[in-house]
Amino acid sequence: MSLTSFSFPTRTLFGPRALRELPAQLSRLGVHRPLVVTDDGFANTPAFASMREVLDGAIPGAWELFCGVHPNPVEDDVHKPAALFCERHCDGVIAIGGGSPLDAGKASRLLVKRPGFDLTKFYDEPDWSGLAPFIAIPTTAGTGSEVGRSSVITLDATRRKSVIFHPELLAKLVILDPELTVGLPPKLTAATGADALTHCIESYTCPAFHPMCDGIALEGVRLIIDALPRAYRDGSDVDARGKMLVAASMGAVAFQKDLGVVHSLAHPLSTLCGMHHGLANALCLVAGMKFCASRKPGLYRRVGVACGLDVLGVSDTEADHRTVAFISDFLAKLGLNTRLRDHGVQPALIDALVGQAVDDPCHKTNAVPVTAADFRDLYNAVM
Ligand SMILES: NC(=O)c1ccc[n+]([C@@H]2O[C@H](COP(=O)([O-])OP(=O)(O)OC[C@H]3O[C@@H](n4cnc5c(N)ncnc54)[C@H](O)[C@@H]3O)[C@@H](O)[C@H]2O)c1
Ligand SMILES: [Fe+2]
Question: pTM higher than 0.90, yes or no?
Answer without folding.
Answer: yes
